[in-house]
TrEMBL record:
Alphabetized SMART domains for the sequence: RasGEF
Coiled coil region boundaries: none
Protein name in the entry: RasGEF domain family, member 1Bb
A GO term from the CC aspect: plasma membrane
Keywords: Guanine-nucleotide releasing factor
GO biological process entries: Ras protein signal transduction
UniProt organism field: Cyprinus carpio carpio
CDD domains: RasGEF (cd00155)
InterPro entries the record matches: Ras-like_GEF, Ras-like_Gua-exchang_fac_N, Ras_G-nucl-exch_fac_CS, Ras_GEF_dom_sf, RASGEF_cat_dom, RASGEF_cat_dom_sf
Domain N-terminal Ras-GEF: 1-76
This protein's record includes keyword Lipoprotein: no
Length: 392
């Protein structure tokens, strides 16, 4: 009928008028928050929108097709990355458990150490930065919201957020813990005091290089590992090391006054990045656990309204600023040459558990009192079944 044709013409004209703006909005959405569309309902809605736009405008239809193709490539890459993470985690777990029962019987008392693989602190810090930047690049800003929503899901959001965990966030936090334990493991392993001291000095130098690069996450992980009791109790080893550099680094990451020193250094690195002339100067890798904490409290501030019932736009602005900085940090391409052997070592070499570290520490420098002697006896039994080859 004439009325139907007229209505169709008007609809097509209206779609052509608004289509470019819709395409622009969806382009920005899918490029900035692609992980939103891992949810089937979101992807279905996006495809329905493509169909509707195609009804009135061929150019918009083609633009939407390209948009979906780019989005699918991103999601495919993400899926492959998460599969590789899962494989690496499973492999490391499979290697670690037998080690506690058998292989570590040879490893605890050994002369070989990380220095046999890489004795250049700068190169080692570069490889740490490769891992940090790769893992950072796969974290979508929407994962922060998803992680916070999981803490207190409402009925409306529960089905949406239960499908996908913030797996990349979790993997990044696990990496921090792994590096801390790896640092402590390497320091506690060597038989001779002078070799332990060399490894200790090496990790202090690596931490310094991480600070210089702007890799604060690896810096804090190394400091955390060196401050673990199994390492900090090695007084004879520490006495052979000049700790001035380490003391300065610890001061830089001091948690007092809400990490004032670190936040000052982070602002300096961010300023350097904004005016950078080289890729290396652009690198900013925040101490991630603290960054998540900051985002969490800003998010809580956004949820709470002002006393007059209005939305707290100041908190929303602060949150948007933090997330925007995060987006700029994760987009930087790591400029350093890759050392595959060192990277493989960092990702997959077995590390000690807390109990195994404590035992290795006692084997390096004996217990100082009856309580420590009883603890060592118990740990020997639990970790190594009283294997005689572990004894001095």
């Amino acid at each position: 009928t004439v009325c139907a044709k007229l209505s169709c013409f008007i609809l097509q004209k209206r779609i052509r008028e608004i289509a470019p703006k819709i395409v622009q909005l969806l382009t920005e959405w899918t490029e900035t928050f692609p992980y939103d569309f891992r949810d089937e309902r979101m992807m279905r809605s996006l495809k329905e929108m493509t169909h509707r736009l195609a009804f009135g405008d061929e150019l918009s239809r083609r633009a939407m097709q390209r948009l979906i193709q780019r989005l699918l490539r991103k999601l495919t890459t993400l899926g492959q990355y998460e599969e590789s993470l899962a494989t690496s985690s499973a492999t490391a777990a499979a290697m670690d458990r037998p080690l506690a029962l058998k292989s570590k019987q040879q490893l605890v008392r050994r002369e070989e150490c990380v220095l046999n693989l890489c004795d250049d602190p700068f190169v080692f810090a570069q490889q740490l930065t490769h891992i940090e930047m790769e893992r950072l690049s796969y974290i979508g800003p929407e994962e922060f919201v998803r992680a916070f929503a999981q803490k207190r899901p409402s009925d409306n959001h529960k089905s949406l957020f239960s499908k996908r965990k913030a797996s990349n966030l979790e993997a990044y936090v696990e990496w921090f813990n792994r590096l801390s334990y790896l640092t402590a493991t390497e320091i506690c392993m060597p038989v001779k005091k002078k070799h332990r001291a060399r490894v200790l000095e090496f990790f202090i130098d690596v931490a310094q290089e991480c600070f210089n690069i702007g890799n604060f996450n690896s810096l804090m992980a190394i400091i955390t590992g060196m401050n673990m009791n199994p390492v900090s109790r090695l007084k004879k080893t520490w006495n052979k090391v000049n700790t001035d550099k380490f003391d300065i680094l610890v001061h830089q990451m001091d948690p007092s006054s809400n990490f004032y020193n670190y936040r000052t250094a982070l602002r300096g690195a961010t300023q350097r990045s904004s005016t950078a002339h080289t890729s290396q100067e652009m690198i900013v890798i925040p101490f991630f656990s603290l960054f998540i904490k900051d985002i969490y409290f800003l998010n809580e501030g956004c949820v709470n309204r002002l006393p007059n019932g209005h939305i707290n736009f100041e908190k929303f602005w602060e949150l948007a600023k933090q997330v925007s900085e995060f987006l700029s940090w994760r987009q930087v391409i790591c400029p350093f040459e890759r050392d595959r052997k060192t990277l493989q070592y960092l990702i997959s070499t077995p590390v000690f558990s807390e109990d195994e570290l404590q035992l290795a520490s006692y084997e390096s420098e004996g217990p100082e009192n009856n309580l420590e002697r009883d603890t060592r006896r118990s740990l020997r039994s639990e970790c190594f079944f009283e294997n005689p080859c572990l004894r001095h």
